[in-house]
Amino acid sequence: MPELPEVEVVRAGLAPAVTGALVLGATVLDERALTRHTGDGAEFEARLTGRVVLSAARRGKFLWLPLQPATDGTAATDAVVGHLGMSGQMLLRAPGAPMERHERVRIDLAHPVHGELSVVFADQRTFGSLAIDDLIPTADAAAGGQGWAEASVPAQVAHIARDPLDPAFSDGAFRRTLDRKDSAIKRVLLDQTVVSGVGNIYADESLWAARIHPETPARALSTRAVKRLLAEVRHVLEKALAEGGTSFDAQYVNVNGQAGYFAHSLNAYGRTGEPCPRCGRPIVRVSFTNRSSHFCPHCQRMPRSLPVTR
DNA sequence: CATGCGTCCTGTGGGC
DNA sequence: TGCCCACAGGACGCAT
């Protein structure tokens, strides 16, 4: 589901509620929610109880809650990692609140200022999951991600590239990677080891804005086109974030269960047959890589010839 | 090594 | 009305 803007909305909502809070207990209702965790539900609950949450962090579509080390004075060494998958939600609830539909895990917290509250992980399709994972140093020694100034990331997030809104994202490295890719640019945008946070909606929206055909081989893009694309990716992600993310239904909501407004701003995604806002010709939908791509065949043309070398 | 496909789930909406 | 298929915002493992 959720792509960077939706996940960032969740992170920003969690941060003030969980930072500094003590874990009173955890309840795993469905162990399928722990597919990223090495132990079982009871082990997860026991290992989390009594710990203090230091922050709410994010890189791309991954979230994590760094935990205070048992012996203080040192850097954090582990965290609760979460991925929302296609349908995951993180909801803030009052203590003892009734069980949510599709509730998988509940974490009960005591915050020094806000008092007791619960973080509920609900997930219809169970593609999302939580885990307790070790923090390891970042390869570039920069901060781990949004909301986490220490130079560490959960081990299972280490292979995820920085996202385009991360100050440590390297535009030059991104451009050089594209030069080596024969794959369609859309596929590369969805490859979280190249650039993280972009999913099917924002890939289509960014390519529409940059006037690039989704099946253009990545290496066929000029340096100028790559710069334009990166600028549009950032613009789309920031605008969506400012509007609270994209919600087509009640599935994609913030920690208080509220929907975002960006669906009204979509130019290509989900607008099959509707007029392109730029040229008026119909948006088409094609299927490749087992996913839908929406674009304007008039505004987004394939390059006539591919550069032999750049 | 890089690339592309199938698979893990539940639910909804449209067509017949 | 009811049934069945297609499709849904993701990521990973495995085959080629």
UniProtKB/TrEMBL annotation:
Entry keyword DNA repair: yes
CDD domains per UniProt: EcFpg-like_N
One function term, GO molecular function aspect: oxidized purine nucleobase lesion DNA N-glycosylase activity
Catalytic site positions: 2-3, 61, 291
Binding, DNA: 102, 125, 181
Cofactor: Zn(2+)
Transcription is among the record's keywords: no
Annotated EC: 3.2.2.23, 4.2.99.18
Catalytic activity: Hydrolysis of DNA containing ring-opened 7-methylguanine residues, releasing 2,6-diamino-4-hydroxy-5-(N-methyl)formamidopyrimidine; 2'-deoxyribonucleotide-(2'-deoxyribose 5'-phosphate)-2'-deoxyribonucleotide-DNA = a 3'-end 2'-deoxyribonucleotide-(2,3-dehydro-2,3-deoxyribose 5'-phosphate)-DNA + a 5'-end 5'-phospho-2'-deoxyribonucleoside-DNA + H(+)
Function of the protein: Involved in base excision repair of DNA damaged by oxidation or by mutagenic agents. Acts as DNA glycosylase that recognizes and removes damaged bases. Has a preference for oxidized purines, such as 7,8-dihydro-8-oxoguanine (8-oxoG). Has AP (apurinic/apyrimidinic) lyase activity and introduces nicks in the DNA strand. Cleaves the DNA backbone by beta-delta elimination to generate a single-strand break at the site of the removed base with both 3'- and 5'-phosphates.
Record-given protein name: Formamidopyrimidine-DNA glycosylase
Lineage: Bacteria, Bacillati, Actinomycetota, Actinomycetes, Micrococcales
